[in-house]
C-alpha cells in the first residue's frame, strides 16, 4: 500500500513524500524536502538517507477519527515533531488507509496538545500508548531552532525576587521574546550551592516560574523550565569542568563574595558554579544572554571555555554575547548604595520584593539611604540618589536629565514618594497576574511538562555532539 503525504514545513521546507507501507517501508519520491514521515499500518519504517529528519511521533494521518482531532485544533493545523537523524530509524505504527494532506506548524505546544489528544483516544480504544516512550520530540522544522537566534537566561530560586532582578533581568527578558527563541530557566541546580530548605526551594522554584509568566513571557513561545528537569546541564557541566582552569575560577568575584558569606560551606559546587552556568548557555547554542552587570564575569568565562573547546574540537559551540539593558543594569541596596540589591540580603528594608504591597514599597523608599546634599542630581557623590534616579528611570522610561529637571528645587521627600509610586504601578499588574496564575495548577503543570521536554530535546542535540567530540562511545540503538 502506498500513501502520499504532502509535507509543508517552515521556511521553504515543502514537498511530498511517498510512503510505501510494506513490511519495511522506504521513503521515496521528493523526500529530500520532507522533514517528516507519516505512515499508517503496523509497519517498520526505515527512513531513506535523503530524508533529513523523521517525525518522532507518527501521526496516523489516514485514520479519520484522528483526522477529526486535528481539524478540531484551533488553527486546524497539525504540527510536526522531528528528530534529526543521520541514520535509519524505525517505528512501530498504527493502522490506517488512504491519502492525507497535512500542514505543519512549528509550535511545540500545539504539537503537544494534538499528540496528547491523539494519545488519549488511542489509549481509550486500545489500552495501549500510541507513542512509545522516548519517541516524542517537539520539533522545529528540523533546523536548529528554526534558524532563529537563541537567547538563554536563568535565575536562582533562592529567595523572593527583588526589583533589582526585575529591572536588571526579567523586564529585558520580556522585551526580547519576539526577537529570539528564548530559554528561561529556573536554575535550581545552582541554588543548592548554598544550603536550602527542600520544601521551600521547591515552592520558590514554582513561584519563580510562575513569575516569569506573570512578567509577560509567553510560555508557548519561549521555553520556561526547571534546570533540574534537563539532565544535560549537569552532564555538559562535567565535561566543561575538564576544560576550565582552577586559576580562572579563583578569579570569580561572586565566588569570593559567596564564600565569605557562607564561610561554613565553601563547597566545590560554589567554586564550579560558573562552569554550570557556561553549560546552561552553551547547551542551547545561545547567541545572547540577558543578565545584570554582576554576571558579566561569568559570561566572560563562558566565552573563554567555549572558545577553548572550539579551538580543540572545531566549531561546536556558539559564542554567546551578554545583553545588558540600558536602564536598571545594577540596582543598588536601598540601605547601602555601595552594595547591589540582592534577594539574599538579610535586611528586608534593603530590597523591594516583587510581592511587596504598596504601603511597604512606599515605606521602604521613604527610608532609603540618601545624603545631605538635598538636590536630585545624578552624581557619583550621591550614590543613593543615583540609584533612586535609575529606578525611577527604569520604571517610567524617562531620561535622567528629564528626572533631574522635574525635581529641581524639590526635596527628597517628594522624589522618594514619586519613585515609590512609579514602582507600585509597575509591580501591581505583575502581582495581579501572579496571583491569577498561581491558582491555575493544571496550566502551570502543563507548562512545566511541555517545556521540559522541549528543552531536553535541544539540550540533547548539543550534548550528543559534545560527547562524540570528546570521544565517548556511540550509543547502540
Ligand atoms: P542572590 O542574592 O541569591 O545571589 P540575586 O538577587 O543576586 O540573588 P540572581 O538570582 O543572582 O539574583 O540574579 C538573577 C538575575 O538578576 C541576574 O541576571 C542578575 O544579573 C540580575 N540581578 C540581580 N541583582 C540585580 C541588581 N541588583 N540589579 C540588576 N540586576 C540584578
Ligand atoms: N548565575 C546567575 C544565574 C544563572 C544564569 C545562567 C544567568 C545561572 N545560569 C545562565 C544567565 C545564563 C545568577 O546568579 N544570576
- What value does the Rg take, in angstroms? 26 Å
What coarse outline follows from CA principal-axis ratios? globular
Strand line-up across the major sheet: 4-3-2-1-8
Report the sheet with the most strands, covering strand number, pairing sense and barrel closure.
5 strands, mixed
Structural class: alpha/beta
Q: What percentage of residues falls in helices of 4 or more residues?
A: 40-55%
Q: Kindly report how far apart the N and C termini lie.
A: 28 Å
**What is the typical, i.e. mean, pLDDT?**
76
What percent of residues are in strands?
5-15%
List each distinct ligand once. Answer: adenosine-5'-triphosphate, L-tryptophanamide
Low-pLDDT residue spans: 1-115, 128-144
Topology pattern, helix = H, strand = E: EEEEEHEEEEHEHEHHEHHHHEHEHHHHH
| Number of beta strands | 14
Number of helices: 15
Write a brief caption for the model.
With 477 residues, this protein is of the alpha/beta class. It has 15 helices and 14 strands.
Main features:
alpha/beta, 3-stranded parallel beta sheet, disordered N terminus, 477 residues, binds adenosine-5'-triphosphate, 14 strands, 5-stranded mixed beta sheet, binds L-tryptophanamide, 43% helix
Write up what this structure looks like.
43% of the residues lie in helices and 12% in strands. It has helices spanning 64-71, 108-126, 163-176, 188-191, 198-214, 232-241, 246-250, 253-261, 268-283, 296-313, 358-366, 383-396, 400-406, 412-438, 441-470, and strands at 2-8, 14-20, 24-28, 44-46, 53-55, 78-79, 82-84, 100-101, 104-105, 150-155, 181-186, 223-226, 288-290, 321-323. The structure holds adenosine-5'-triphosphate and L-tryptophanamide. Adenosine-5'-triphosphate is lined by residues 155-156, 158-159, 162, 164-165, 168-169, 291-292, 294-295, 328-331, 340-344.
